[in-house]
Amino acid sequence: MSKSLCYQMVLSLPSPTSDDKRADVERLKEASGLRDLKIPLSLMRMLPQELRRNNYKISPLFAISDAADVLVEIDAEQFWGLAIDIGTTNIVASLHDLKAMEEVGKIRLVNPQTTYGVDLLSRIHYAMTGKLDEMRETLVRGLNRLIGELTQKAGISSEGIYAVTIACNTVMTHFLLGLDVSTIPVEPYIPVVFKPGFFSAKDLGLTTNPLATVYIFPNAGSYVGGDIISGILSTGLFKSDLPSVLIDVGTNAEVVVGTKDWILVGAGAAGPALEGGILSSGMTAESGAIYRIDIDDKTKEVSYLTIEDAPAQGICGSGVIDLIAEMYRTGIIDRQGRFTEKAPLEVDENGEDLFVVAKGEHGLIGIKQREVENFLRSKAAMFTSLYVMLASLGLSFSDIERFYIAGALGSGVRVEKAILLGMLPDVDRERFVAVGNTSIAGARALLHNAELLKEIEMIHQIITYKEMNTDREFMSNFPSALFIPHTNPEVLKG
Predict the structure, then answer these.
(1) Per residue in 279-312, is it b (16+ CB within 10 Å) or e — as a string?
(2) CB 291 within 8 A of CB 412
(3) Topology of 6-73 in CATH?
(4) Are the folds of 80-216 and 236-272+374-492 the same?
């Protein structure tokens, strides 16, 4: 049976006698079989009383760490774990009962650092003005707020959380640890650390149990972070004999191509067009988000569906793809994404032309000309990254066994619509697998199974990072992908 990152033993220690004068700490180590067990001083002070009060029958909790397992509680009835995905735009956390090995709660909040800028570069520049500590404190406050809301809903104390796994991009990793980010955005793009490993919750300022073990997924490049390694882990791409692809679109677009022997990763800016960063009516996939859109060919009337059938608040990633694909299909925009004479437009409060999808309680929900153009730049960056990476490996779309679609792109997207726009290749539809938030999925899997630490290390060793920002092939192919679906549609076919 796999061992979780925080695990319990039921022990019955032999009582001391005149013939057995082992010290309490050594007695516990030998009974547990953990000769290298680390016991914090605070628990070492409590151990004698707890052993004797319980007649040497205890159920201690141990947490896995870098060098040795750590005693985190001498005797416990319940213990919990937390998996966290720190995205540039949003933070998602999942609370787990590690005794029952089940999820008991999940919550999402906007990353509080968005007040310093929706993109990473803006935040890096702000941090470089002497505000790094402020950036870290803002992030940690957001995490602690999330922990508080999750534990309150579950009816437990945050002191009962003894293990935390965190997957995030390289920049967010550095902000969380309070590390210098100034060398990340300039050539040769060197971060402070790739493999941060384990910390205690106390070290990071998290309001879980202060002795809780916190594992931060390793990064593979300045723009390929632990969220991608977590995604590779959760999809099982790294076990495949034949090449598979993982496309993860959040605030950035990362493309992974690989097998059990090798993995190539490329990254570039793309995702805000699918969420709230570029589209003024954009939002994440939550209650009230429009996720499905259809437009009547003749009348150009819009019909839509919202998450939880709630009143429309905005448009999430899959809804944006639907909207632009339907606008193109019905002639409202042309191949360059420009509004045509067929477009029934309204004027918003800023005097800009707007194609309206719905009337929300806070105003019109729709899309503007410049927002369509922003989207096309995003889709062009994503597709071109995929195309160029495969070409650099001597592969075509027909060589790919599975296309795993994650992030904002993988949340309920209709593959046909993405193919119509030239976001995804025109191959057999059954080869596409929507996998949602693979970053939180990998963090959750590790929380339940510490053996995956070996697989994470293996994934990290076989990854090669391809810098797309300076790639000549990317630059030469990018303009063709700005059109719908492409200036040369043949390149979309497998």
Answers:
(1) bbbbbbbeebbbbbbebeeeebebebebbeeeeb
(2) yes
(3) Ubiquitin-like (UB roll) (3.10.20)
(4) yes
Round to whole Å and give the CA distance between 435 and 429.
Answer: 15
The whole-angstrom distance between residue 438's C-alpha and the CA centroid of its chain comes to: 6
Q: In whole angstroms, give the CA distance from residue 215 to residue 165.
A: 5
Q: What is the architecture of the domain spanning 80-216?
A: 2-Layer Sandwich (3.30)
Smallest CA-to-CA distance from 9 within 69, 75, 55 is with 75
Question: 24 — alpha (psi -120 to 50), left (phi > 0) or beta?
Answer: alpha
252, 268 contact by CB (below 8 A): yes
Half-sphere exposure of 291 (CA within 13 A, CB side): 18
- The top-level CATH class assigned to 236-272+374-492 is alpha beta
Task: Give the predicted TM-score (pTM) of the model.
Answer: 0.90
Positive or negative, the CA dihedral 354, 359, 360, 363 is positive
Residue 248 near residue 406 (C-beta atoms within 8 A): yes
pLDDT in tens, the chain (494 residues): 578 999 999 999 999 999 999 999 999 999 999 988 999 999 999 999 999 999 999 999 999 998 789 999 999 889 999 999 999 888 999 999 999 999 999 998 989 999 998 788 899 999 999 999 999 999 999 999 999 999 999 999 999 999 999 999 999 999 999 999 999 888 888 899 999 999 999 999 999 999 999 999 999 887 789 999 999 999 999 999 999 999 987 666 789 999 999 999 987 655 555 655 567 888 877 889 899 999 999 999 999 999 999 999 999 888 999 999 999 999 999 999 999 998 998 888 788 889 999 988 778 999 999 999 988 988 898 899 899 999 999 999 999 999 999 876 666 788 999 999 999 999 999 999 988 889 999 999 999 999 999 999 999 999 998 877 778 898 899 999 999 999 998 899 86
Query: CA quadruple 135, 141, 145, 150: dihedral positive or negative?
Result: positive
**226 vs 413: CA distance, rounded Å:** 24
